[in-house]
Amino acid sequence: MRTVEDIIALLGGPEAAASHCGVGTEAIRKWRQARAIPAKHWPAVLSATGLSLSDLPGTPGETLKTEPTMASADTPPDGATGCLVLADGTIIWGRGFGAETSAVGEVCFNTGMTGYQETLTDPSYAGQIITFTFPHIGNVGTNIEDLESVTPAARGLIVRQDVTEPANYRSTKHLNGWLVSHGIAGLAGVDTRALTVLIRDGGAPNGVISHRADGKFDIAALKAQAAGWPGLEGMDLAKEVTCRQSFAWNETEWAWSTGFGQQTAPTHKVVAVDYGAKRNILRCLASAGCDVVVVPATATAEEILAHKPDGVFLSNGPGDPAATGEYAVPAIQGVMASQVPVFGICLGHQLLALSLGAKTFKLPRGHRGANQPVKDLTTGKVEITSQNHGFAVDPKTLPDTAKVTHVSLFDGTNEGIAATDRPAFSVQYHPEASPGPTDSHYLFHRFVEMMAASKAGRA
Ligand SMILES: NC(=O)CC[C@H](N)C(=O)O
Known about the structure:
Keywords: Amino-acid biosynthesis, Arginine biosynthesis, ATP-binding, Glutamine amidotransferase, Ligase, Nucleotide-binding, Pyrimidine biosynthesis. This protein is of the alpha/beta class and 459 residues long.
């Protein structure tokens, strides 16, 4: 490994080093002071000097050998057993874990500090590789209760620190073994802050995550795969993650001493259309007094109404809402025509908006995490919410018969709507939390009150 002074000399002195790396001389002074070259300058230094990654003095406390990161060299640095190859050819090296496999998807980031297992099993993450900004992922292991679906939909995960031994009484399996059993690759040792900044500034890129214990990667093939993937826009993934047959759901939310319960005295019958529903949404409905029947995403209005529901719930789900146009919108319009109350969450919110004639669009970087502030315009209250969406409703395209009820206090985008001429409302975020705060549970009660009022009106 060379010293900072060696490298500055190789680059032709401080002024020349600054101009080679496109930085000011102040940055070079900081390198000298810290006796380290920050990772973001490594690619420029490597290309100007012809040195290899293991020659560079990195951030103190980090060993380059074990922290391969944003360098774009095609040859893996020593110890690299995994990589993320982006559609523009950028390569991020790291240590592979989980299954030895490769998968292509959109690379997004999630800022949640808890609940990685719920996140990995949220069907809305189909087609996505998740960068966790929280560094300690895997430290509470995995268990069979915190699953939001039986099969994880996420295509891969990227983390800062290596996964440690689980330290939690609920853990039944190491995250590594759990990922192996589900065929999912992980990548550790990545500068996830730098990757998150890349996503924030440039939008969520498409990429391939690859894990090989022998460290031998066919980079040309991975680059071609990443560049050839069409992206989430226009992609209908709800059809892939929905249930194949209808089923009844009566399990209620988890409680500290008793675990999950059963709804034995429901007051309202709800048909939940499964576009990729998280289990905890179904539990919240059951806990609020609903007898739930889950039906596949492609169920028609007639099939839904044949259950004689007091209300219809439209679930969350993956992919582009506009791509479900041929089956979801006609079914929802048919349901709304019957005046049955409708409540939608996330993809369900976007589909309700499309059914009312509004439009959706792709957000540049999406909202994913458990700390997203939202204002309920109907009460003036602010709630901290759990979110996971890459598309959003354009409120300017809403008809006169719908109003905006919730907005994001991060970027002002739409977070909720309600029809003004019929009982239908929806939110873009995840009131069931899991993981995240439970501030928004009141929405399940709003839905129940809406069903009760509708029944009273019909009586
Ligand atoms: N959680 C969801 O339902 C996500 C909805 C949609 N797939 C989006 O990314 O916006």
